[in-house]
Amino acid sequence: MTINAKKYLASLCSGLLLVASGTPGALAADAQELLEPCTACHGENGASTEKDMPIIGGMSAPYLTDAMLAYKEKDWPCHEVEFPAGPDKGKKTDMCTIADDLSEKDIEKISEYLAAQPFVRASQEFDADLAAKGEQVHDASCKKCHDEGGSLPDDDSGILAGQWMPYIRQSFEDFGSGDRPMTKKMKPKFNKLEEADKEALVHYYGSFK
Ligand code: HEC
Ligand code: HEC
To answer: Which residues lie with the beta carbon below 6 Å from any ligand 2 atom?
Structure first.
């Protein structure tokens, strides 16, 4: 290859890099604006510091998209929630109303952005004996789809390790009552759990720091 050809290739490559890096930058700015109304509850970049609000930064984009579409369709329960902080403090809303205000394109942008953020584990108290029991239950019944304590975003099954314990408890209630549908193969495993197993699992997920 001649020197000129090499130079040409080099400039072509840096040009492509510029184009490639320009687009995600604009997308991120868009997503940050869309996420503005979420921060009062889910924290900066989805790293919720409120024990009743799930941490959502760092989950996979397909999981987040499915979750928000499920709220939009009211397939998941539309619990009434109160803004714990910010200008709307004390006002009530629910995730279905929030998701309904977003277009599918917005949901995709938000999901891509959140998936690129770290999952910042909650700082919370747990019972070590219960957590040890929970690990056994998890490994026997849940590990297949929630590997490494449910810490891998690529399982597309949410993230359980380090999630706020009250949110996990609420999810268990919603699955148990049938208000939130379960994926076909999770259902038989979940329905076999005793109440004590569920509480042990909550402490196991809460034990990840
Ligand atoms: C007023 C508080 C509040 C606001 C504002 C809010 N959320 Fe939520 N969100 C919640 C709560 C509480 C839950 C847990 C489920 C429930 O109680 O409905 C939740 C659940 C979720 C989940 C599912 C988490 C999981 O683990 O499956 C996603 C995703 C989500 N919210 C995204 C968003 C996005 C994106 C916005 C902004 C556009 C937003 N939320 C705004 C309170 C809020
Ligand atoms: C066959 C695969 C599979 C098995 C087994 C399974 N799950 Fe799941 N689980 C999923 C998928 C997929 C999702 C996300 C989609 C959904 O909520 O329907 C999920 C979601 C969840 C959530 C909600 C996460 C969130 O952020 O809201 C919890 C909690 C959960 N599973 C707990 C369990 C427990 C506890 C067990 C074992 C008793 C278990 N799962 C077994 C596939 C599985």
So the answer is: 141-142, 144-146, 157-158, 160, 168, 171, 182-183, 185-186, 189-190, 193, 201
Q: Do domains 26-115 and 128-206 have the same CATH topology?
A: yes
- Locate the ligand 1 atom nearest the alpha carbon of residue 52 and give its number: 12
Ligand nearest to the CA of 139: 2
Tell me the H-state helices in the chain. Answer: 3-35, 39-42, 61-72, 95-100, 104-115, 128-141, 147-150, 165-177, 186-191, 195-206
CATH class, 26-115 region: mainly alpha
All structural domains of the chain with their residue ranges: 26-115, 128-206
Distance CA(181)–CA(178), nearest Å, equals 6
Whether 116 and 38 have beta carbons less than 8 Å apart is answered as no
- d(CA 160, CA 176) in angstroms, rounded, equals 17
User: In CATH, what is the architecture of 128-206?
Assistant: Orthogonal Bundle (1.10)
Q: What is the pLDDT of residues 111-162, one digit of tens each?
A: 999 999 999 999 999 999 999 999 999 999 999 999 999 999 999 999 999 9
Note the pTM of the prediction, 2 decimals: 0.91
